[in-house]
Write a structure and sequence with these properties.
The chain has 315 residues and is an all-alpha fold. Helices cover 63% and strands 0% of the residues.
Length: 315
């Protein structure tokens, strides 16, 4: 894991409490989601670069000693107050963009939806409207919040801005690839189970290679898929979010393990051909016989996001 420098770590740690004091929140779950939002703001500004799933480890580190009693006991510096205001704005924008895109989707494609389907839609929309990494707890917060606040009748009657219709169209395209997304996520989970990579190694490059492997195995998997570059890019973002949200599960299916081995072999071949010596996303081949379904990437995952109508073109 990349270590945050002491000054940045202190700023982020204190900003969690500053955010709670100014905008509310007392629980550990709230602290985790706020940490995700703060990290997203710093990353979007180019001040942090998180690789793979390591941002979830940063969240763990920032809330490790969380104490709700400190929320009202400290005077905050200008830098901390500025960062919390930016995180608050980012969250509000994300919620607005997500709601507007959900309204556009409902109006255009699905005027009748049950609550479970709405949550699935919100999960799909998040990585379409926001490029910053969304941590597990922040994503879960937005999914629950937006899903519970949706008014289907109002969404159908509302005049929708074309930019939200554009995002809704992208959402519809990705929803049609749900089987590919699920399969790719299962293969990555099998990869993690079998080869025990670090959180840093489970990144977009590995997901991209997995999506390609799933496409090559479409006959074996019984799926029909041809992906253009833009759809592939969006699908990779979807799988990355699912990996953030995913918790430890049962041992993977045989087919997923077989494709995971193909991904590992292809990654190793590429690295040999390119003469790459530094670690990227190809873990050492250290298989495990454990059957408890636990993950080397740690326990619970979290999520974070944010954006608004006037910022849609920035996503």
């Amino acid at each position: 894991m990349t270590t945050l420098d002491p000054a940045t770590q202190k700023l982020l740690y204190r900003s969690i409490y500053a955010y709670m004091q100014q905008y509310g929140g007392q629980s550990l779950a709230a602290a985790r989601a706020i940490a995700g939002a703060l990290l997203a703001v710093k990353a979007k500004a180019g001040e942090l670069i998180a690789q793979g799933l390591e941002i979830e480890q940063w969240v763990d580190m920032l809330v490790e000693d969380f104490d709700p009693h400190l929320v009202s006991q400290t005077v905050w510096a200008d830098a901390e107050q500025l960062l919390t205001a930016q995180a608050k704005r980012w969250r509000e924008i994300l919620e607005t963009k997500t709601r507007a895109t959900l309204d556009a989707y409902i109006q255009t494609y699905a005027p009748a939806l049950d609550s479970q389907k709405i949550q699935e839609l919100v999960t799909t929309i998040l990585p379409i409207v926001e490029d910053a990494t969304i941590t597990r707890d922040e994503a879960q917060r937005v999914i629950v919040l937006v899903s519970h606040q949706i008014d289907v009748d109002a969404a159908i009657a509302r005049v929708i801005d074309p930019k939200w219709l554009f995002f809704a169209k992208k959402t519809a395209q990705i929803m049609q690839l749900r089987e590919v997304e699920t399969t790719a996520t299962d293969v990555i989970s099998a990869y993690v189970y079998e080869f025990q990579p670090t959180a840093v190694e489970v990144g977009a490059a590995l997901v991209e290679q997995t999506v390609q492997a799933v496409s090559k195995n479409k006959v074996k998997l019984g799926i029909d898929v041809n992906l253009d570059p833009e759809t592939r890019r969006l699908l990779v973002k979807q799988v990355m979010l699912q990996l953030h949200l995913k918790t430890a599960s049962s041992p993977p299916a045989k087919t997923a393990l077989e494709i995971a081995q193909q991904v590992h072999s292809e990654a190793a071949r590429f690295r040999r051909e390119q003469g790459l010596d530094t670690v990227d996303y190809t873990p050492k081949i250290t298989t495990t016989d454990k059957q408890d379904g636990s993950s080397s990437l740690g326990g619970e995952l979290s999520i974070g996001l944010e954006q608004l109508p006037d910022a849609a073109e920035d996503s």
